Amino acid sequence: MEDGNNMAHNNSEIDDKTLSWPPEKVAADFNGIDEKHPDGPASVDPESLEGETGPLETAEDIVTHVIAVDDDPSLSPWTFRMFFVGVGLSVFGGVLQEIMYFKPQVVYVSVMFLTVLAQALGTALSQLIPRKGAIGRFLNPFPWNRKEHTAAVLMASAASVSALSTEALSVQELWYGGYPSTAAGVFITLSSQLIGYGAAGMMRSVLLYPTKMLYPANLPITTVMETLHKPKAETAKRFKVFWIIFVAIFCWEWFPEYIFPILSAVSIFCLADQNNAVFTNLFGGSQGNEGMGFLNICFDWNYIAGFGSPLWMPLQTLTNSFIGYLGGIILSMGLYYSNIWRGMDFPFMSQLLYDGSSNSTNYVVYNETLIMNSDFTIDTDAVDKVGVPYLTATYVNYLITTNASLTATLVHMLLWNYDDVSKAWSWITLDKLKSLLKPSTYFFWKSTGARTEAEKEAIRQDPTIDPHYRLMVDYDEVPSSWYFVVFVISIIVGIVCLYVMKSTLPWWGFIIGTLLLIVLIIFFGAQSAITGFTVNMQPVMQMLAGYMFPGKPLANMYFTTYTYNGLSQGILLLRDLKLAQQNKLSPRATFTTQMIGCVIGALLNYVMMISIVKNQAPLLKSAEGSNVWSGAQVQQFNTLAIAWAIAPKMFSIGARYQWVTAAYLVGFLAPLPFYIMHRFVFPRQRIWSYLNTSIILWYLGELFVGLNASITSYYILGAFGQFYLRRYRPQWFVKWNYLVSAALDGGTQVMIFIATFAVFGGSGKAVPFPEWAGNHPNNLDYCKYNSS
Questions:
Q1: Which DSSP string do the residues of 456-504 spell out, in sequence order?
Q2: Model pTM greater than 0.85?
Q3: Nearest 5°: phi and psi at 373?
Q4: Which residues form a coiled coil (predicted)?
């Protein structure tokens, strides 16, 4: 599960005022109109900000000052260098991201890092390859340019994800008797990655072209990319600083990650009292599922930036998530020590199912085999005999707050952003419905993507269209049929392979899942585009599957793979399409590079999953894992699949965990008081629009898994970058904030990649560092060790 996920990995770059600013201001900003410089250019060099006194308050301010609305059509992305760099980084990113998925805390490959590394590699090739003769001119036809750079980054970005299908396949291998078919496993991974691409590509007119669809996470990437392609005299100093920080963090990370790991989780409270279980639950956080890491100090960038660099995270998102984080600590501690749902009879944190015979000194893992039939469906009579399994209190809290966040998101978007999401169904008019009855309507695949002059002019004159896209109307668009073909082939391959894999998911369930994917991408695609934040939909999809396919945990997991994973992939496609748009990469080059990257990434995900599961199976099946490998994500996937397979006995109204289902109603109601206060009671007070209940609710349940010792450091650094620098040192913010963050991400992730194979057991054999005071295995922060 790309928990917090994928969700935090695509976290908001939205500013601290966007949701309350009028649409016309957003449009004005993107057209290069600046209140401070009404007659100035849309792009201002960071150096010119030295004399500015006002803060950079919004994401639109950054666009106004940094991203130029211009294009050079003479630049070509179609070079050997682009494919060489793109494929190379795709291999690197695809392998690294799958490794990270089996870590105690999932860490995501930084697109910012890929951006700067691609620039370094491309520039080096441009300078090192002679331009003599036919071969030289083919390999190195001209200096490395921005469009080559963008294409290579898009290819690597598409590959640098972890396919949820590998999680389902891991579960099937670890708990359900192995892989029935290797070939089917490969094609399931490919089709589940591509189905979301196909669905999202057919919705570009709604979720990509309008100005409001900002995809704010791209703003720092485009800022850096534009800077890197300015004249060398302007970028030499910045690039030098990047490499200094890159090398420094690469060297430093060997200490907290390998030699001196106590630096990743310095807990003053645990060092003061090493025998206090309450301190472990509240202040511990160095081990998987140890504690909430409150007030810990972390010197490990790998974990600080694990869910996205705090230097990128805007102040509004930081503020709302911090409110949820503090509330989540209070809520989780309260649930556990009040012994709600017998919480104290089970571990404080765990994603496993537990037997009712457990007590505070003896945790008994639920024996799933006792309730399984030979075809891996659930025997309900056996459940009655063995007993309904239990969940930990912190995990139930996560399920409740996640479900509430889902419905809060829908209501929040309808209340604050109705005009944006309504475009997805505004095409449903009487004339449109009549046109569906005409045979010619179904010949859309004959389109070549070329536009008439009238169509081009209509786009140029449309005030709602992103001005970056208006500059690209002379490029042939990708016909919708290309995405449609990808979508249909993914459906056909998926259905065939799911039957070969004995997934127990019926064909009609798969079709329902694809229809659900199309509907959900409208709301959550728009939410991600406007705010950069997306609720993790995985538990919700598993709930729906539980009621549709009762007693079938495998069907549950594969249904979720094609719905939740398809949604995540679709949003990533749209985000990268926006990045291509801002950098003026032609639509067809974008389509090609994204498809290549997606296929490479999916194949490497599968290969790495096979290797890791084979070599680390005991750790992946244990509740605590280690500080290097963890099966928390696959355990959680399996736990929810089984739990929802017996949903009426666990989650329906009247059952033990009925609040997990009732939370949907809570989420519907949560945004209403804030909207009423904002709209009718105190319309002049920004605080009511500043608070985002969907984000707050999500973070109320964030601390239920993994290593949590880095969160205090995360918020300190985030406040420094997004409050102090952005408000009081805007010239430093624009010039250095994103570049420093990219260097920190890059040096850290290269170190993790090397260390994984050299000493962490990625190749089959681990080489642990000798134990000493700074390396206390299984108890890095010296908290009282609570084994589950």
A1: HHHHHH-TTB-HHHHTTTTSPPPPHHHHHHHHHHHHHHHHHHHHHTT--
A2: no
A3: -80, 175
A4: none
